[in-house]
């Protein structure tokens, strides 16, 4: 996790530069206006030019990042920052300055859009929220340091605005060096392009361990967009009593799950009837179901978080020694890794028709690994067919019904099952399924009552059994058409062969993706209209009324310098609040933080309205306003500031994540422009009280929208989140969850 944290810190330098730029232009424009004798329109254009640049670059950043990768776009962002800083340092006139500000906006737009995406794709699910709060922290830290610099320069006899703006090129040079020489490419993007070996090396670096094959399997499964997903429920227990030569169980409904150690296995029996997860019949979720207009998606996500095992995750209880999906009982057995280079070196003739040892087309069988037995060692390896990977049934693992599990974080496990049966024409048919498992409650044998009280719970009660919810769907790379071509078993197509076949429009119209876009776009719109720009605009006036400028003037500090110092302290006070948000983002969760902090924003805005409508006297008005503004800022950066970007980076499938986040970011920038340019008009027409009143109403609407539509995603792997969106969209459409 240290590797992922360091990579996230390096990536968020882009957000540090955004905060730095926001502060430096706010200070430099005071001196630009005086030196170049600019009118109000040009002055506003200089400030807004970076906003325009960010909006323009966002329109294509997502599609390009899905095409060429996340890292090249971050490198490009650092180059835009560096180049714009040099041009602003030189700018002889306003036109060159406007060009530099446009390039600066390009860098800002790429950083704001892609850094949260990059962090989500590289961070472990357990600390993804913490690391994705870093952009908010570094942005505020950049503003604080920049305001301190501007305050110091403002005390000089003749401050240079070119130097204020040009200093940006120094930290951007560090950002460029880190993106080029330190930051790796996103492993999820690499897998989506079929670059398995590079993805594996990146994951090993990020996780600080050699065995990352379980997560590699998860990344492959995350390539699916849409598809049929059903909710099932299993009773899972030990299978130690079975002999090596026995079938998993006589009952065809039982599935054997294999661990990495020889002889370590479990048996899973599907619970007949409807799954408790699909009905969401837990106590808390039933309460949510009675809420009018509550999205089934929110209830589904909530059902996972409400009844987490009190004694730990399923991994700690059921799979205490769980290891790699790809690790074998005997590691020296050939062809157990996704390493075609070693296969070529060993001269086994497994190289595919591509024949390139540096490509990933040489992959042979182990998208699913197996426990090696003497039977397997005696079997000949089948020859690969081009880029098709054959998953063979052998020994006890792939005979009858079998599966293999891989821990994927957040209490979730990844498994597959192969169910063989005879078709109508007498030929054997198989159903190859992927399963995401999540434990429900504690061990069944420790609960009051018996398994008979659970629908379909006719499993024996001797020993430790648990109940697990299961998301069952088609594997990402499994093609039914390939079964006939490869009679040895189910086949998988290499990700590189399917990378260019994703139809963007069709993927965006998938019910789960459309649902996620509604959540992402909705929360970005409401965040921008929740009042942060208005409060920022009003802060100097409030502090002036509080007499802060008088106090500073008595210390010999001019009005301009006073405003810079006040802004520096305002950003400084935000940092502890963001640190608190980082601590609780993966504990309380995103949804809980939003539902807790937004009422505080509403109260602060209502108090500002009351303070401006009624006359409490100058001193009382200044005190009330100052307290409300401080509370608003600190609360905003704890919840509504960072969380919309975090959510948008989590809820979309891998192959369309870039373009979907770009759509949400484009909405963000457009709303930012609207709010910025309508604020002066609104102030002149309805006054300060009216503006804050509208913001308070928007915050109320935000709370309702989040309560009804925004699910809790803490601790869940990204691939599981997207599966839940697919299931929730299916339920909302009236189909419900289909149980087999």
UniProtKB/TrEMBL annotation:
Keywords: Membrane, Phosphoprotein, Sugar transport, Transmembrane, Transmembrane helix, Transport, Vacuole
Organism superkingdom: Eukaryota
Lineage: Eukaryota, Viridiplantae, Streptophyta, Embryophyta, Tracheophyta
PROSITE patterns: MFS, SUGAR_TRANSPORT_1, SUGAR_TRANSPORT_2
Segments forming domain Major facilitator superfamily (MFS) profile: 7-714
Region (Disordered): 337-363
Subcellular location as annotated: Vacuole membrane
Residue spans crossing the bilayer: 38-60, 72-90, 96-119, 140-157, 163-183, 562-581, 593-614, 620-638, 659-679, 685-708
Protein name: Monosaccharide-sensing protein 2
Source organism of this protein record: Sesamum latifolium
Membrane topology: Multi-pass membrane protein
């Amino acid at each position: 996790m240290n590797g992922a944290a360091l990579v996230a810190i390096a990536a968020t330098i882009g957000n540090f530069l955004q905060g730095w730029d926001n502060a430096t232009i706010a200070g430099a424009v005071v001196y630009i206006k005086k030196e170049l004798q600019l009118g109000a329109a040009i002055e506003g254009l200089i400030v807004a030019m970076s906003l325009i640049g960010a909006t323009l670059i966002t329109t294509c950043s997502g599609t390009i990042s899905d095409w060429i990768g996340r890292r090249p776009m971050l490198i490009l962002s650092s180059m835009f920052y560096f180049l714009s800083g040099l041009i602003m340092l030189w700018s002889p006139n306003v036109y060159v300055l406007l060009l530099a500000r446009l390039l600066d906006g390009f860098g800002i737009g790429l950083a704001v859009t892609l850094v949260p995406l990059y962090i989500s794709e590289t961070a472990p699910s357990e600390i993804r929220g913490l690391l994705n709060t870093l952009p908010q922290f570094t942005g505020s830290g950049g503003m604080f340091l920049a305001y301190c610099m501007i305050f110091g320069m403002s005390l000089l006899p003749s401050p240079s605005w070119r130097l204020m703006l040009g200093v940006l090129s120094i930290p951007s040079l560090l950002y460029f060096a880190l993106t080029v020489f330190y930051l790796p490419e996103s492993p999820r993007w690499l897998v989506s392009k079929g670059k398995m070996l590079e993805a594996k090396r990146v994951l090993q670096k990020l996780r600080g361990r050699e065995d990352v094959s379980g997560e590699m399997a998860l990344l492959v499964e995350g390539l699916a967009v849409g598809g049929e997903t059903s909710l099932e429920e299993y009773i899972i227990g030990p299978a130690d009593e079975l002999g090596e030569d026995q079938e998993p169980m006589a009952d065809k409904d039982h599935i054997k799950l294999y661990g990495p150690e020889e002889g370590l296995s479990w048996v899973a029996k599907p619970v007949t009837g409807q799954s408790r997860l699909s009905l969401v019949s837990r106590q808390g979720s039933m309460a949510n179901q009675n809420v009018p207009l509550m999205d089934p998606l929110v209830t589904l996500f909530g059902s996972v978080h409400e009844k987490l095992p009190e004694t730990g995750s399923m991994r700690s209880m059921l799979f205490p020694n769980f290891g790699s999906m790809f690790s074998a009982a005997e590691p020296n057995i050939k062809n157990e890794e996704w390493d075609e280079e070693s296969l070529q070196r060993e001269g086994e003739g497994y190289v595919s028709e591509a024949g390139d040892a540096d490509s990933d087309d040489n992959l042979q069988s182990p998208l699913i690994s197996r426990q090696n037995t003497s039977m397997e060692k005696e079997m000949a390896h089948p020859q690969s067919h081009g880029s098709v990977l054959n998953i063979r049934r052998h020994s006890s693992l792939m005979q009858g019904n079998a599966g293999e599990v891989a821990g994927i974080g957040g209490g979730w496990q990844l498994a597959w099952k192969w169910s063989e049966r005879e078709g109508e024409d007498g030929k054997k048919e198989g159903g190859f399924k992927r399963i995401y498992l999540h434990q429900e409650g504690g061990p069944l044998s420790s609960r009051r009552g018996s398994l008979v009280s659970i629908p379909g719970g006719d499993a024996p009660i001797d020993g430790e059994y648990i109940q697990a919810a299961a998301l069952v769907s088609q594997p990402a790379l499994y093609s039914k058409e390939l079964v006939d071509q490869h009679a040895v078993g189910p086949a998988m197509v290499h990700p590189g062969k399917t990378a260019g076949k994703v139809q963007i429009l069709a993927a965006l119209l998938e019910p789960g993706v459309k649902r996620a876009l509604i959540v992402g776009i909705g929360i970005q719109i409401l965040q921008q209209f929740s009042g942060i720009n208005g409060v920022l605009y009003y802060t100097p006036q409030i502090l002036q009324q509080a007499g802060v400028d008088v106090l500073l003037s008595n210390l010999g500090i001019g009005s301009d310098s006073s405003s810079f110092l006040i802004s520096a302290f305002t950003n400084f006070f935000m940092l502890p609040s963001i640190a608190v948000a980082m601590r609780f983002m993966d504990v309380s969760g995103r949804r809980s933080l939003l539902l807790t902090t937004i009422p505080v924003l509403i109260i602060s805005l209502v108090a500002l309205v009351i303070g401006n409508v009624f006359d409490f006297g100058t001193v009382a008005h200044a005190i009330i306003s100052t307290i409300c503004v401080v509370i608003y800022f600190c609360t905003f950066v704890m919840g509504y500031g960072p969380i919309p970007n975090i959510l948008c980076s989590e809820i979309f499938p891998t192959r369309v994540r870039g373009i979907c986040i770009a759509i949400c970011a484009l909405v963000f920038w457009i709303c930012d422009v609207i709010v910025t340019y309508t604020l002066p008009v609104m102030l002149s027409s309805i006054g300060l009280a009216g503006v804050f009143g509208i913001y308070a109403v928007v915050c109320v609407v935000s709370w309702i929208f989040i309560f009804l539509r925004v699910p809790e995603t803490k601790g869940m792997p990204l691939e599981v989140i997207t599966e839940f969106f697919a299931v929730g969209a299916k339920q909302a459409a009236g189909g419900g969850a289909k149980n087999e």
